[in-house]
Sugar kinase
Amino acid sequence: MLDLRRGIGTHQPRVISLGQVWVDIMMNVDEVPPEGGFAVADHPKPSIGGSYRVLEAVSRMGVEAEHAGILGNGLWAHFIRQSFQDNGITHIGQDRLDEDSGFRVVLRSESGKSDSAIKTFIASYGAEAHGDASTFAMLEPQEHDVVHISGNTMMDHTATGVDGFLLRAGTDPATRDYTLVINPTNTLRLVNDHMLEDLVLARPIWSCNRQEAMTLAERLGAPIDDSKVTIGGGLDDFMHQLCDGLGSTLRAPLVVRVGSRGAWVREPGGETMHLEGFPTKSVHTRSAGSCHTGVMCAMLAEGRGLAEAVKVANAATSVAIARSVNGIPQCPDYDEAVELLK
């Protein structure tokens, strides 16, 4: 598909996300009240959630970021559109005029442990969740583009559109002139078997945290034994076993993030390698996985190999968690990330 904004023969590789975007309203409470109860929250903090933070990270790396999901019409959708405009993200997906985009209320309460908290989520789905089989029918990625799919798009009606795109993408990555990346998120255990099968058959690059990777391994019956993981050690051996077993089952590239330890990477037919992270003092309460995935996607669009892309993502994530705003990690620009690599 010719993109008239770029002109003929001037295509710049971009990252296109099929993920959903909504508004998060974070509230800190002493404890979640029982039914009929009452609680006071301090300073509610609205922010953009979902795949927005992946696209924000892409844009901060200097790569074109495009959102192919659905946006609505209303207060929350306006907030999202303004944030897109402010952060260099282009919306190329469908617009719905009959309903607003959705929002999530996140109640954050202390768990009784000094270093942890419990998050309770209440979701109000909007336009982003009400797609159909035609949602991504007109999407035609070009050479060297990276298409990002998030697990949050596989839970509702929009999943049929994702499934249609996967079927068009085929089962052989070598025949595609673009790269497909999936980060399954914590909703992976709720994705139906048919959708999961089509995802696996498409053989994308899988970008997971350790919990997501273990859930995926369990669902696919990959040979994993976590009995060696203890507080005192065993993580390195287990991660090699996890990546070897899951990577062989997926027959696809696999990236598993483990916080300050960086990430373990395995490509089909290759050895699992550990790319060390950059330990730093963190001030975040929300996951930095979106920053890592977005930076990795941006580097792949720039033509970097998977290992090099993950190294830059490790560095960017380390900077991000040290400079969070309202608990949300703030992804740095490319120069800051590379400076840490030096």
